[in-house]
Design a protein that fits this description.
271 residues, two-stranded antiparallel ribbon, single chain, elongated
Length: 271
């Protein structure tokens, strides 16, 4: 899968790191360009999964309203991510009570920057893409529930398939079953699974309750809480609240008010 690269030049990266070192860039003065680039890439993933940009849908329609909430969630996630990585890079400045030279700090900072904006971003892109895909599937299934009374969990089975997805593969449950509140993909990082609508003319037997109970016990114990949701029903790509919220939203107590303001980073009204 080709994942868009963040549009952040070497000069901009150097300026970011120098700004953090000089303590000009901090949690109260976050880099807006980095925030907007992160949001652009993740928003692109959601739109690709959903099958259209926000402007592709008529204002006030269910698709517009759901996609709008997913879009806002991506911006909030990007704000929290920008805050988190600036804080983490800042923490690399000192060894004990002694401040590192800029040269030594820069080496550590560049490695951390790459972790956040290459490795992590690739995984987040896949999560956003899958969430967009499953959100519109869920929306469609709910809108036409009389036509699609059942949903089926479908996994890609190969050497990369997780144990969670292996167990969930092939599960068939009613569309309105609480089972989908937790088990709608993605169910882990880099999850490639999807839910499949089953129409009323091609119904399949629901999965045996004892099998579902066994699977649910396994997922309760092994699935990360941040993935125990339904992007279409919960209307988020990344959890922002509760004990199972994404770690980026686990801010210091003194910054909770700042977090509620999206770290003073603007969510654009238009793309």
């Amino acid at each position: 899968m080709a994942i868009p690269k963040i549009d952040y030049t070497e000069k901009q990266i150097n300026n970011l790191i120098k700004g953090i070192y000089d303590e000009y860039v901090n949690e109260y003065n976050l880099p807006k360009k980095l925030y907007n680039e992160t949001a652009r890439i993740l928003k692109k993933a959601v739109y690709k999964g959903y099958g259209g940009k926000l402007a592709s849908f008529d204002y006030g329609t269910p698709d517009y309203e759901l996609l709008s909430e997913l879009r806002d969630n991506v911006y909030m996630f990007s704000g929290a991510k920008t805050y988190t990585q600036v804080k983490e890079i800042s923490s690399l400045m000192y060894e004990g009570n002694e401040k590192l030279s800029f040269s030594d700090f820069k080496k550590k900072a560049l490695a951390k920057y790459d972790t956040y904006n290459k490795a992590y971003l690739e995984t987040e892109y896949v999560t956003a893409l899958t969430s967009g895909t499953e959100a519109i599937q869920w929306q469609s299934a709910q809108e036409y529930i009389k036509l699609f009374p059942q949903l089926k969990y479908t996994a890609i089975l190969d050497q990369h398939t997780s144990e969670i997805c292996k167990r969930l593969d092939g599960v068939v449950m009613p569309t309105n079953s609480p089972f989908w509140n937790i088990h709608t993909p993605p169910n882990h990082f880099n999850c490639r699974c999807h839910i499949e609508k089953i129409d009323k003319y091609d119904t399949e037997p629901n999965t045996n309750p004892s099998v579902v109970k066994s699977i649910t016990k396994f997922t309760d114990e092994n699935m990360q809480g941040v993935f125990k949701m339904n992007p279409g029903k919960d209307r988020v790509v990344f959890k922002t609240k509760g004990e199972d919220k994404h770690p980026y939203f686990d801010v210091e107590p003194k910054d909770k008010v700042l977090a509620k303001k999206n770290f003073n980073l603007q969510i654009p009204e238009k793309d």
